Amino acid sequence: NDTTISICETNSTNCLQRLNKHCDYVKVLAGSTNFDFFASAGLDGCTFVWDIENCKIKSRNQSTSNRSGDLKNKASIYSLAIPSNNTNLILSGSSDKIIRLWDSRQGTKICKLKGHKENIRALCFNSDGTKFLSASSDKTIKLWEVSQQRCIKTFNFHKDSVWALAPSISFDWFLSGGRDGNIFYTSLHNFETRIVCNEPDSILKIACVPDQNKFWVSTPKSILKEWSFESIESQKPLARKINFSSTPNNNRISTSYGSWNEDEDEIHSLTSSKHPLRQIHGRPGIVSCSILSNRKHVLTCDDDSNVFLWDIFQAKVIKNYGKIKMSQIEVLPDINIIPNWFSADCKTGSLSINLDYNNCFASEMEYSDITQEKSDLI
Length: 378
Fold this sequence. Notes:
The protein is an all-beta fold. Helix content is 1%, strand content 43%. Mean pLDDT is 80; it is low at 60-70, 236-268 and 373-378.
């Protein structure tokens, strides 16, 4: 959220280069297959194409923006795609419900494609760039033909916003997931669909592994999960259509061969198990923070509901309150009143301290008050 892009080594924490051409949050990146270049886009509506070796902007386009080297949208961009065998094309999807196709060499717009009713959240090409899929907050997925510049099929089996797409290498099927937590398999030969699994949280990203019968899923929780599904050849024919009941409070999904009820946790799907194969647990992200009146300590709460007390001067946790509401912690008044010399935010899932340049060097405290270990809280 600091508007920069960091290029890091995969085997260490070293940051090789920091790119800072964007003027607002960077929301999405897309790279070429051999990773000789990549594209970046965000809330500023600009798509930059970067030479990864020189860390410089590759494409130049003075006509679409006052800033050279970018592909300019009028709305924030939330999705990008580059075909693996045709790196001359770049797709961008934005909050104005429009998909734009760009020439990455010249930075010129080829066409605009309309059809979705809400923000475009995910895009993916086939290998040669002749077809692509788009997913939107309008609960639909669309299949497009590039040469005809039109939608040739619309899928509407999701119950809520669709945020993630993962096609097979041959582009004969794809996985999709979103806010409803359901992951679906869809054939692009006969357009048949079946549910694969259900997550308790929204699906942010799906990534298939090379053998194509396993995939990884990320959600807002700090856990990565690996799922598998049986080969289609070993299954009986897929359900022709998935119908969602329009009856209020009815969570049953009906298919030709069975049904799934969210309350009963019954899944008739391609999965060989109702549980993921593996899980990689990360550190719980910080979801809220509060600066105490002494301007020395900050309270934080993570997505596991654990509350911690941080010492800003030592940059570490000095007390763990466990699972408790932050409002239940009583704060004693502090006699050392100093101006607001910093602000705190947790938008990235970690505690970030930002100095107030007008006041940070005008605040004075005794050294004994800074280093004392006694907490001001009950």
